[in-house]
Every structure is written in C-alpha cells, then in structure tokens.
Amino acid sequence: MKQKLQRGDPPEQVAQTEHLLDVWTGLFFGIGVIWTAIGMRGALLQALGDPTSSAQLGAFVILQRLVDGGILLALSTTIFGGIGGYLMRLIKALSVGGELRRFYLQHHAQQSDSILLVLQRIEQQLESMGNKDQTDHVPKLLEHRAH
C-alpha cells in the first residue's frame, strides 16, 4: 500500500489495495468468531450431550464438562481474533493512514477542479450564444468557489 501511494498509482489501484487490506482484517476477525462458535459447540455437546443425564447432574459437573470440552480455548480464539484484527487496523492507520487520506483528498480536489472547468466552459458557451436573458440565472461558478 505504501509503495502504491509513493509511486502515485491510479486511485482505482490504491482503493482496491485498501479494500483488500480491509477484507483481510475482516477475515481475521471472522476466523476468530467462527473458531469460537465451533469450540463452543463442541464444549456444549460434551457438557450437555445426553439431555436426561444432564438434567440430573449438578451445575458444577456441567461447568467442569464445559471446561474440559474446550470452552476456555474457544473463548480465547475470540480474544485472539479481536486483538489481531484491531492490531491490523492500527498498523494500517499508523503506517499509511495520513498518506492515504492526503491521496484521497488530492484526488477529490482534482475531480472538483475538472468539474468546475467543464461548468465554466458551459457557462462561457451559454454567454457567447448571445442569449443573455437565459444566462442571467446562471451563477458565476468560479466566483463562488472557495479556496
């Protein structure tokens, strides 16, 4: 990403790379959540496997079965996924955040300038047609532009 910004790659390529970085970050979060769900399911199946015997067991025995079934490991995958995902976001923000923001602002400014030029040409063309009464309501576009 940093190389693309430094080289001045086209906005489409920069945006695609940023999108892919965000997808990978989302996948990191998602994998943590999915593994948590899988682990929780396994722990619950082990703890509550037989409904008739589970009803007769005490809460402590069921809790012990949950721990033995891997519920703590399952919950730790959520923590790992969360920490990893937020670290990925932090690294992106610290390494290219400012450059990326400047890149997009510059790109939007260039687009705005080109639109204003086109509108100015249209305005000039309307004025040159000699229909002053039709152009009286057309604002002077560049006069209203704030720098």
UniProtKB/TrEMBL annotation:
The keyword Membrane applies. It comes from the Bacteria. Keywords: Membrane, Transmembrane, Transmembrane helix. The chain crosses the membrane at residues 20-38, 71-91. This is MotA/TolQ/ExbB proton channel domain-containing protein. It comes from endosymbiont of Riftia pachyptila. The lineage of its organism: Bacteria, Pseudomonadati, Pseudomonadota, Gammaproteobacteria, sulfur-oxidizing symbionts.
